[in-house]
Amino acid sequence: MSSEAEVPPDALVLRFKPMDPERCMKRLNQDYRDTGDYSLSVFVGTQRQGETVDALKLRLLAASELQGMRPESNKVYYVCTRAEKLLERKFTFRKDESEDEVAEHYSVYFGSAAPTLEDIERFLEAFDDAPEKRS
């Protein structure tokens, strides 16, 4: 079960694959069967005082590993420059009520009805065009 979460508009959002509409649709439907929510996983953080954007990215990557994302199978990631881009597109962020979830892990909620490919494209358009690779 998950509940809506407040995310600052200037927060950095990191999303792993899949990043193409058809594969995202498959993932959304699979996760719906498992959780009852149409949502996609992301990692979210805001810069701490004195922290660079690159350091924030590294912190989110480290959090993803704590959440069980294997670096060898996720060599590429996308970054949404600000959570505001998703919020403007009427998406909301949710937190699982699991004790195992790291603080930086969120889900972007698509709503209670099955999403369309247009909904998924609206989500994907919020992310940078060029993927960044783990260093």
Please give a structural write-up.
The chain is of the alpha+beta class and 135 residues long. It contains four helices and seven strands; from the N terminus they run ββαβαβαββαβ. The chain has helices spanning 21-35, 53-66, 84-88, 117-124; strands at residues 2-5, 12-15, 39-45, 76-80, 92-96, 105-109, 132-133. Strands 1-5-6-3-2-4-7 form a seven-stranded antiparallel β-sheet. A hairpin with an 8-residue loop joins strand 5 (92-96) and strand 6. The protein is globular, with a radius of gyration of 14 Å. The mean pLDDT is 89.
Series of secondary-structure elements, N-terminal to C-terminal: EEHEHEHEEHE
Number of distinct beta strands: 7
Separate helix tally: 4
Overall mean pLDDT stands at: 89
Biggest sheet character = 7 strands, antiparallel
Query: Which stretches are poorly predicted, pLDDT < 50 over at least 5 residues?
Result: none
SSE map:
Layout: E1 2-5, E2 12-15, H1 21-35, E3 39-45, H2 53-66, E4 76-80, H3 84-88, E5 92-96, E6 105-109, H4 117-124, E7 132-133
Antiparallel strand pairs: 1-5, 2-3, 2-4, 3-6, 4-7, 5-6
